[in-house]
Design brief:
The strands form three sheets. The protein has a six-stranded antiparallel beta sheet with strand order 4-9-5-6-7-8. The chain has two domains: 230 residues, no CATH class; 110 residues, no CATH class. It is globular and about 65 Å long. The two termini are 22 Å apart. α1 crosses α10. Helices cover 39% and strands 15% of the residues. By secondary structure, the protein is α+β, with helices and mostly antiparallel strands. A hairpin with a 2-residue loop joins β5 and β6. The longest helix has 34 residues.
Amino acid sequence: MENIDIQNKQVAHMVAQIRGKQLACEQSQNAMKDNIIIYFEINKDYLRLNKELTKYFRNHFKEFVIIGNRITEFLSSEPISDVGYPNQKNKTHQQLILANEWINKYSAFEIIDQIRNGIFFNGLSNSTSNIMLPELESDCENEYWGNENPSVTPLLLYAINKIMGYPCNDDQFLVGCGKRVLFLKKDYLLPDHILTDTSNYPFADKKSMILFGSYQFGGQRRFSAQYIFGPEDCSSSLSKALFLNSNQVAHFCTPQILNAFENPDNQYKFKKVIELCGNTLLESVNSVEPGDIFLTTNHTGLFLTKPNFGVAQNSAYTIEFKRNLDSEFGKCEGGGFRIINLNDGTRYYILRPNIGPLKQIVSLKKLIEIIDSNYQHYKITDTNTIGDCRILIDNII
C-alpha cells in the first residue's frame, strides 16, 4: 500500500482518524500493561499462588459474562431516548465471551507472563510500527489490528487491573480504546435487579457503561462533546472527514446520504456519480475516483483508491469505520481499509463530495509519518480532550 497517493482532504482526514485512534489505543493498552507489571512486581507472592489466582481470574470472568449478558438483554428493549445508541448497541457481552475463552486457556502465571512480554489476545503484539493501516476483517490469529483483538485486549487488561484492586485511571487507560458513556437521559438509572453487586462488575454502574473499541454505534455527533480519540461509527467518522458543519454532523446518517444521491440540490453539495449493482461494466467502475463516497445498506465509507488499482478487476480499496463482532468469521472493529468487489451483487451508490484537494499530493506512507509525528507532538493522554483528528494533518490541508 505504500505506493498509494493521497490527494484529497477527506481521505487524509479519515486516515488521521484511524491512525490517531490506533496510536492512542496502543498507548493506553501499554499503560494498562505496565500497571499490571508494576502490581505483580510489588506483589510477587501472588504468582506463587498460581492455582488459586487462576481460579480467581476465571471465576471473575465467568461472572462478568453473566452480568454483561443480563445488561445487554435488558438495554436492548429500553427506549433509545433513555439509554442512547452506543449503550443499547454495545458489544461488551461478545467481547467478554471472547475474553473469557482466552482466560480459560491459560494459568494466571502464563497470562501475566504474556502481558509482561507485550503479548496480548490471540498471542499477538499490539505494535503499530510495522503496519500502515489496519486491514478490516484480517485473520485475528495472524494480525492484531483490524479485527476483534484491539477491543478485547483493553477489556482484558482493564478487567485484570480491576480484579486485583489496582488503581486504574479511566481518563488515561481508555484513550483510543474505550470510553465511559453516560446514559442519555440524565436521571436514568440501571435498576438494582439488573446490576447486582456492582463491585464485581467493572464495566457499568447505575449511570453509565464503559464501552471498548474505537467503533461505537452512533459515534460522536456533538462537537462540544467530541473527543479527539473517541469512538466513531461509519457515518459519524465520514461526516467529519467531509468537513460538515456541526448541525450536519449531528444528523448525518446513511438515509441522508441516499437522499443526497437522489437529490441533486442536496444540502451537502454531493454529486451523484453512479449506481452499481451486479454485472458492472468496466467503464462504469472507471468513473469512480479516490475520495468518492460509497453507500450500501446501512453502511458507508470512502474509496481510498480508484477501482482496479493494485487489486483484481472491478475491485477497489476503501477506507472506513466498521464493526462486526457477531459472526464466526470476518470479525472487525474500528477503522481501516478493505478491498471490496464492485461486481459481487451488492448495490453501491457512489457520490462525490465538493471538497478541495490537499496542498500537495502525499504518499500514504508519508501521511502516516506526518500523523505519527504530530501525535507525538501533542502527547494527548486524556480521554476528555475535546477536538478533532484534523489537528494531526493541519500542516498539509
